[in-house]
Design goal:
This protein has 215 residues and is of the alpha+beta class. It is built from 4 helices and 7 strands. Helix 2 runs antiparallel to helix 3. The longest helix is centred in the middle third of the chain and has 67 residues.
């Protein structure tokens, strides 16, 4: 999951021990195998990476809660305006009935005036397009409330999952793979690192912000 942003190779784990103190760090596999001429080491210690991931997940949780509040507000506004939307649905339905009646009349007129069949076909087609648009508007009105509530429930479920993950002292491999698609590590010219997380689509579609590490 941890990738070198320069060469695309995975970062491999290595255990280091200095003066009796041990830690795990990750380094570019290309550099490990072929040396600095091929790629830089991009070395990052596991505690640093854990801290970044924890911070990013906490930020994601807050974004989800903010989104959930937004959907709650949408549902509340919808409930206030529901009578208005009910009337809109009735108006759309009545309009569709009228348009269908017009289409039937145009079909009968076309039978008696085959010379101008193309004109009638065009008029019929325009009404069919309008009926399709009105039908979609009715469907949107009916589904909006349901979809908003469903999305709000999904967001809260994700937030609860993140709450459980963030309570753990270390994020398990299973939870990591559930939440994160890839971790990119880029080394700047001054030797500092930029670490970017790409979340799985169900949690966040785009990469999050960059974290810079200076040794």
């Amino acid at each position: 999951m941890i990738k070198c942003a320069e060469c695309g190779a995975s970062l491999i784990a290595k255990k280091r021990t200095v003066a009796g103190h041990s830690w795990v760090e990750y380094t570019c596999n290309s550099n490990n195998r072929y040396g600095n001429e091929y790629c830089n080491a991009h070395t990052i210690r596991e505690p640093q990476l854990d801290e970044i991931i924890h911070t990013e997940l906490a930020m994601l949780r807050q974004e989800i809660l903010d989104s959930s509040q937004k959907y709650d507000e949408i549902v509340r506004e919808w409930n206030k305006k529901k009578p208005k939307y009910d009337k809109m649905i009735k108006d759309y339905t009545d309009k569709i009935v009228t348009l269908k009646g017009q289409i039937e009349e145009l079909i009968m007129d076309r039978i008696g005036d085959r010379e101008h069949a193309k004109v009638y076909n065009s008029m019929i087609e325009k009404r069919e397009v309008e009926i399709a648009e009105l039908t979609q508007k009715i469907e949107d009105c009916r589904k909006f409330d349901e979809l908003s509530k469903k999305r709000c429930d999904e967001l809260m479920s994700t937030a609860e999952l993140l709450d459980e993950v963030l309570l753990e002292p270390y994020i398990s491999d299973a939870n990591m793979r559930l939440l994160v698609r890839k971790i990119n590590v880029h080394e700047n010219e001054d030797g500092s690192l930029d670490v970017t997380l790409e979340f799985n689509g169900d949690f966040k579609d785009t990469s999050t912000g960059c974290f810079e590490i200076n040794d």
